[in-house]
From TrEMBL:
Keywords: Cell membrane, Membrane, Transmembrane, Transmembrane helix, Transport
Membrane topology, from the record: Multi-pass membrane protein
Name recorded for this polypeptide: Nitrate ABC transporter permease
InterPro entries the record matches: MetI-like (IPR000515), MetI-like_sf (IPR035906)
Organism: Amycolatopsis rifamycinica
Keyword Transcription tagged: no
Residue ranges occupied by any ABC transmembrane type-1 domain in the UniProt entry: 55-237
Family according to the record: Belongs to the binding-protein-dependent transport system permease family.
One example of a Gene Ontology biological process annotation: transmembrane transport
Length: 256
């Protein structure tokens, strides 16, 4: 319990500092409302049907994006991790695509597939693909070669080796990649909603309330909700990983 309590103490300290800065007049309460106002506004937002629909739309797009990313990245990582020649042949294109920020791809995606839910899902998949794939490749390098050679000596097919030997051994690494990608996908989805002007979504709601309005408490409150969602996703997956992989000695920190 020491770690959660320290985290809570840090959060409370930050909120108190924020409140004090606002109350003594170091910043304008109009543009940077104090947390006492923001937290009350957050409670009111959950009674707003449009805001709740936005959260549901965002989380649904996030869930679809992360599921597609897993379905693509895990098989790709297993193949690239098990065939060095293929990994070398694709290294240039992978290293070219990986650093491209999601925001730079928004105009291209809008031109190709439009501004519907497909746009934010596509960019969510793109952003979250890489940590899962690279963690899977790294996990493949950590497998005891004796296991793979024994399976080959028994005449096991490559597909069976990857699915029955490699995948269970790399599961902790894959899960670490999923945990990293989960928050990345959420950032990509919300950012796309905000920048691409989606019809519904948390990012779209933030864009609307931040344009032509003096209700900065709404902007801060909805932004804090987005951050809270990311925290809950990461914390939930971290706790799930500890339960699923108690036997593993893998460091669950980022292998980015």
């Amino acid at each position: 319990m020491a770690k959660p309590l320290r985290g809570l103490a840090g959060l409370v300290g930050f909120l108190l500092f924020w409140e004090a800065v606002c109350q003594v007049g170091l910043v304008s309460k109009t543009f940077i409302p104090p947390p006492s106002v923001v937290l009350v506004t957050m409670g009111e937002l959950f009674g707003d049907a449009a805001f709740v629909r936005g959260i549901v739309a965002t989380m649904l797009a996030w869930l679809i994006a992360i599921a597609i990313a897993i379905a693509i990245a895990v098989p790709a990582g297993l193949l690239l991790g098990s065939i060095p020649a293929l990994r070398t042949a694709t290294a240039a294109i992978v290293e070219f695509l990986r650093p491209i920020p999601v925001a730079a791809l928004i105009p291209l995606v809008l031109l190709v597939i439009g501004s519907g839910p497909e746009a934010k899902i596509t960019l969510g998949v793109y952003a979250s693909l890489w940590p899962i794939m690279f963690n899977t490749i790294y996990g493949m390098s950590e497998i005891d070669p004796v296991l793979m050679e024994t399976a080959r000596a028994c005449g096991t097919s490559r597909f069976r080796i990857l699915s029955s030997v490699a995948l269970p051994q790399t599961a902790p690494f894959v899960f670490t990649g999923v945990r990293l990608s989960a928050t990345i996908a959420l950032i990509a989805v919300v950012s796309t909603e905000f920048l691409a002007g989606s019809e519904v979504g948390l990012g779209s709601y933030i864009m609307v309330v931040s344009t032509g309005s003096t209700r900065f408490d709404l902007v801060f409150a909805s932004t804090v909700v987005a951050g809270a969602l990311g925290y809950l996703i990461n914390e939930g997956l971290e706790q799930l990983g500890k339960r699923l992989f108690r036997w593993s000695t893998v460091d669950r920190e980022a292998i980015a």
